[in-house]
């Protein structure tokens, strides 16, 4: 058992002392309601204990990339719903699968997610919370089809460059790794502006998804779910095709290799990306813990629920006595 305080522990102690004093005072001056004040006291104690962040030891692992910042630049245009990944799966499924694998391979790094369609945005700022990164990818959906228009494969240029520059300024000793995930399909009328990142990228890869034959694209509905297939003016199903030449150009601009992905082991892609050059051979051993603060919160809820029940019972008795 260990503690991982949710707020500074001295503040928790002060709150606990104040609540204990209040409960003791009420137990003395209000003896008729001692049971209810006792319940409230135990509930307050449970809340304070929860604020201390009790957690169970869950093993340990050695960090492998403690001084690395990693950005996933993810294509969320409608073509992310094209079904030609590993047969007939949506490409976005491949994005999610590979991000999970890379996060696992680079344990201890800081990760950020940038998505782009007609515009780019930071979906997840740099964090070591791998669960948050995975949740961000699980809830990710392509752009709403009814609002979609032409998009550029380098739409994330400004957002990525700004993030890299800030990282260089704030963390000059941390390597900067970029993984670009997309299909290279340019639907904007103009040619894509090149990525201008200079020497800000230390490693990574451009990961390409899709096939030369292409796959039908599903519409993205307002609730983020996949709907019917996209159709053109003639009623034909819209087909999205990978453009590996364009992806190769993006890779050259970022200074990283291009790797086509269709599921399977991420090892070869990581080897080509060679983030090992910028990753520590062995980091510190990190302990993993499972929080049990929820149990304290549950106990407090149950006790307060019982208190409310007792209060309602007493109120009913008083009303009955008043009527009599």
UniProtKB/TrEMBL annotation:
<keyword id="KW-0472">Membrane</keyword>
<feature type="transmembrane region" description="Helical">
    <location>
        <begin position="37"/>
        <end position="57"/>
    </location>
</feature>
<dbReference type="InterPro" id="IPR002035">
    <property type="entry name" value="VWF_A"/>
</dbReference>
<dbReference type="InterPro" id="IPR036465">
    <property type="entry name" value="vWFA_dom_sf"/>
</dbReference>
<protein>
    <submittedName>
        <fullName>Ca-activated chloride channel family protein</fullName>
    </submittedName>
</protein>
<feature type="transmembrane region" description="Helical">
    <location>
        <begin position="292"/>
        <end position="310"/>
    </location>
</feature>
<feature type="domain" description="VWFA">
    <location>
        <begin position="69"/>
        <end position="254"/>
    </location>
</feature>
<dbReference type="Pfam" id="PF13519">
    <property type="entry name" value="VWA_2"/>
</dbReference>
<keyword id="KW-1133">Transmembrane helix</keyword>
<feature type="transmembrane region" description="Helical">
    <location>
        <begin position="6"/>
        <end position="25"/>
    </location>
</feature>
<keyword id="KW-0812">Transmembrane</keyword>
